[in-house]
Queue: 3 jobs
Job 1
Amino acid sequence: MELYGKNIGVALTGSFCTFEKTFKVLEDLVQAGANLYPILSDSSQKISSRFGTPDLYLERIRTITGREPILSIETAEPIGPSSYLDILAIVPCTGNTAAKLASGITDSPVLMAAKAHLRVNKPLVIAISTNDGLGMNLKNIGTLFNSKNIYFVPFGQDNWEKKPNSLVAHMELLRPALELALEHRQYQPVLISY
Ligand SMILES: Cc1cc2nc3c(=O)[nH]c(=O)nc-3n(C[C@H](O)[C@H](O)[C@H](O)COP(=O)(O)O)c2cc1C
């Protein structure tokens, strides 16, 4: 299904090394005519690192989406009752957020958005990015993969020699993964090597 005119929630969590790639694919979604509604986890609003600062991220996200990001649990909650998103993407999705989502924990704006959105039976797309994807988080990825209305951006081992448990989504496949998830279909193949 085309993304033109679709309302897409884009939820960023604290995998800061993938933010730059994420911003580029968000720009592509805007080019495709999608309306983006940004949401940030608490960590991505607070943590400064060698990859950038929250102020810079917020400015960039405002510029790309033309919207004020959702930054709190209370402003994410209406996503359920108002049902205004056609689809929600957690991009990038940390191991932390994946583990909490798989366990039914709702303690950040992104997790609130996911819970509210799933409540109304709409598709949720996950772009995983975590060093423990083949470690502690493998079971959570499995749980999410097997959950109703949850789809994945294809992912692979980004650096098996130095980070043998690391899994990172192919961000450039976000758009086709969203197009299929809107039809409740999973982009295949899911596992793609780097
Ligand atoms: C510089 C830096 C880079 C990080 N990169 C990742 C990452 O790629 N994947 C991940 O799962 N966690 C990463 N983390 C850890 C998360 O930011 C941390 O687990 C945080 O609690 C995530 O919260 P959130 O899921 O609510 O955004 C990184 C932390 C820092 C400081």
Note: The longest strand covers residues 87-93.
Job 2
Amino acid sequence: MKQLEIKHIQKLLKESIGDKTYIHCLGVMDTAIKLASKYNYDTDKAALTGLIHDCGKLKNNEEILKTAQKTGIIQDDIMANNINLLHAPLGAFIAENTYGIKDEEILQAVRYHTTGRTNMTLLDKIIYLSDYIEPNRCFSGVEEIRELAYKDIDKALLIAIEDTIMYVIENKLLLHNDTVNARNHLMINLVKNRR
Ligand SMILES: [Fe+2]
Ligand SMILES: [Fe+2]
């Protein structure tokens, strides 16, 4: 199928995720554009990915679980037992099969926007961080990460991932291997670059 027009994607997105998540997506889109222009990445691609990154966040958990089971996107036990993680691979599925997005880089950034992964692409990093620091986010320390994001994307990303790991542990949630891999890979590279 051909990729839907952006107006059509916006309409479907708003209907399926609801107003609150849609507003969050607009915030992620704005931040993704800013980070993309700072780090010389395609701003149109970053904007589209930011807009749709949560397209798998259907209005209730039952619907997410039902659709995830139907589409066969649950690939491991950690995903199967942590509903918070499911909307990301589900989103990649919806982006491809409902919106007709073919760009593998965009689909991967949607797929890994919650867990991160080893060797993240620049688009993965932009979306993960934009999701964390978009203007509607408000938690102690967010301003520091916002500032750092425009100075050193890898350092900002490392803090965001480590905060997420700590949140997951404190709340007794399952920690996905991809998040551990994302953190270790970033640390190895940061140490290498310091030498
Ligand atoms: Fe998300
Ligand atoms: Fe999000």
Note: The chain is about 70% helix and 0% strand.
Job 3
Amino acid sequence: MKRVLSALKPEKVFEIFEDICAIPHGSGNTKAISDYCVNFARERGHFAYQDEMNNVIIRKPAAPGYGNSPAVVLQGHLDMVCEKEPELAFDFEREGLKLKVDGDKISACGTTLGGDDGVAIAIALAILDDTALKTPPLEIIFTSDEETGMYGVKALDGSMITAKRFISLDCGKEGAFTAGCAGGVCVTVNLPVETEKAQKAAYKVEISGLCGGHSGEDIDKGRLNANKVLGEFLKSLENVRISEISGGEKDNAIPSYAFAVIESKSNVITRRVGSGN
Ligand SMILES: [Zn+2]
């Protein structure tokens, strides 16, 4: 294999990253990359465990003099999102990625790179490989099929983890350390509804043209949520009856659009709610 990243530093991180880019590892196709990680650890004399979901747990003992330090988890996921340019003939099940370096940017020719979360595997294994590093006991966790629904971690045997400190190597921003994060929950609510024939003209109320954005990364920017604006508006009306209501596009996006078809005693057209953008 002709190495493309060998001039980059830290060398070991990019060497491992290039190795794993040569192993197909889309979600649902993680046995080979999981084996690579397990073999990497065992070749260096470390404990490595693989479960039937291809999740991997590796343990590195503390460096001399650091035995009393609390253990730390380094965590990442094995799978990557496989996207390619529409015209490109590329088999993510069998082919390794074709890497290129342009200035300070690494990319793959015509496909996604899998930096998320290949870089976590590369960093964690490089730390495992470095015998001179002064590290506490490490528990390295690589889970499978994170991108498609966290299936790996859901099946992981948590009793094998003893560390109380956890560093996730799966963040989008270089140089940024996140001290905590919000989770997400999908909720299905069934409400009993009664229907009746509409008596008056109906209005369609639309909230549109809002900024939207990522529900995690942009949540601190004070952006309006179309669903909440619509709810606030409907609450301000008298005797509102809803015939249709819908809003939001994705679980992880701030809704930029919502609408309702309603009937109300209030004069809908003159109503204004909300402020800002
Ligand atoms: Zn990720």
Note: The chain has a mean pLDDT of 92.
